[in-house]
Amino acid sequence: MSYFERALVAAIIIGAVGGFVGCLVVLRRRTFFAQALTHGTYPGAVAAAALGVSVPLGAAAASVVLVLVMTGIARVRNQGAQVAAGIVLTGGFAAGAILAAVVPSLPVQPESLLVGSILTVTPADILLAACVGLVALVLVVVFGRRIVFSTFDQAGFRAAGYREWPIELLVLGLTAATVVSALPAVGAILAIALIAAPAAAARLVTTTYRGMLVTAPAIGAASGVLGVLASRALAIAAGPAIVLAATGFLLLALLGSKLRALPWRASAIPVETAEDARTA
Amino acid sequence: MTENVVRLDDATFTYPGGSSVGGFDFAIGRGEAVALIGPNGAGKSTLLRGILGLVPLTHGRMSLGEPVGEASGPMADAAARPVTAKHSDRGMLGFLPQSMEFDLDFPISLEQVVMQGRYRRLGLLRWPGRADRAAVRHALETVGLEELAATRFGQLSGGQRQRGLLARALAAEPELLLLDEPFNGLDQPNRDALVATLRRLKRDGVAVLVSTHDLELAQQVCDLVLLVNGGQLSFGPVADVLTLGNVQRCFDGVEVEIDEHTLVVPGHEGH
């Protein structure tokens, strides 16, 4: 497989997994948390690169620490989860920047950890992303209706005799795993776009959560392919191109939903269907 | 003698924080409806949550069908430690909560929300089958929303949402239905629909415990009244318990008027 084909496969898989897990993130309104996670894993990635161990491994270790830190800060004096996420986001990023500056001979460009380099992903990176996707799929098939129930109606979920924390932990874990597996391809800064944008776009164009879980991975994968192709055709960086493609899909979905909501469309549709009925 | 669906013997429920309501000594049989009446903060929701197993039973006994919990005080030995309803017992309970903190943007249909009432029966790995879909359809018919089954839940009106949640509670095919202030903020058509539904459920043998500020409801659908303020004050047939003196005592000296139907309690929401 050429490096370019490998990049395409990586883009499809990472885009699809990001879109799929992104649905849970967007529906549970954990986007800011996910963003904090992406930025906060940066020092872990830098440290791993400096030590010569696997970058996703370092990021994974960092994400476990971050989830604990955020849970801790969220409990402090009415500060709440948003504040915790904000602190971790900026603090983690600053720590990574300092680490990258003081470690004299970092074997990789710090920049590639920030925006990724999909043309240099290894088969192991792809395998990791695929495994994360498979685990996410199985967990959503098994726990999906409980995730939906607890997201939609937390009080009712508890009253029905279920516990909330295993669901929260499951979604946080999947989010962290997705961020970590997307890191080699799109980096610490851009990963959030692959999680949030396809899911947000899918939410606009579908009416059911099941539809969303199918549409978002498709949009994510399409963004990946478009980005990689654009990066070759226009000689631009692949990571940003993928993210711009995902953002483009979101804008299209937004435009589409705005157009649908316009009054002239609403009155035009019955006329069309009446004409269809006559010609049929 | 009717068969008891729920029975409490000198039961006390205590939040982990320490606040508790106690002295509950009553039973509800099949097809009986009990109005739970008391001022705000009297412990009505705590009692409902206690029966649901969300607040620990710390004293006395509670039976749901069969005995599920026995406790004889926080200082007692290990055998008498706080007991909550086991998960397996929750299948017979239906609950309509008071607070409605939903994500109304959530892309979920009314039918899917009602199906949530079946999840306890489905467990983790079984997919909804014909019996589950039939129960959902039947529950939607009971509350009169079958035509809106495919509508997104967030697009329903407030009253329809509440009926939808009642349908979710009914889809569990409960033997005991717990309703926390179900009439708050309902307009007349939705109110009438709810009264009709509760009457039908009674005929079908469902036991109902409904907390309310509304004495009209108590008289329309309930056989028994449970007056509560920090614990049980009195329990019995509507005509015996719902006297001016009892209600005044229950509402703690707050001025109370009973104008035939409506309980007017200044300082509480008046209907």
TrEMBL record, chain A:
Residue spans crossing the bilayer: 7-27, 47-71, 83-106, 126-148, 169-197, 209-229, 236-255
Alphabetical keyword list: Membrane, Transmembrane, Transmembrane helix, Transport
Membrane topology field: Multi-pass membrane protein
One of the Pfam families matching this protein, by short name: ABC-3
Major subcellular site: membrane
Keyword Transit peptide found: no
Entries under Gene3D superfamilies matching the protein: ABC transporter involved in vitamin B12 uptake, BtuC (1.10.3470.10)
Subcellular location: Cell membrane; Membrane
Record has Membrane as a keyword: yes
Family: Belongs to the ABC-3 integral membrane protein family.
Name of this chain's protein: Metal ABC transporter permease
Species this chain originates from: Agromyces salentinus
From TrEMBL, chain B:
Pfam families in the cross-refs: ABC_tran (PF00005)
Key words, A-Z: ATP-binding, Nucleotide-binding, Transport
GO molecular function, one term: ATP binding
InterPro entries tied to this protein: AAA+_ATPase, ABC_transporter-like_ATP-bd, Metal_Ion_Import_ABC, P-loop_NTPase
PROSITE patterns: ABC_TRANSPORTER_2
Domain of life: Bacteria
ABC transporter domain mapped to chain residues: 6-254
Protein family membership: Belongs to the ABC transporter superfamily.
Protein name (Swiss-Prot/TrEMBL): Manganese/iron ABC transporter ATP-binding protein
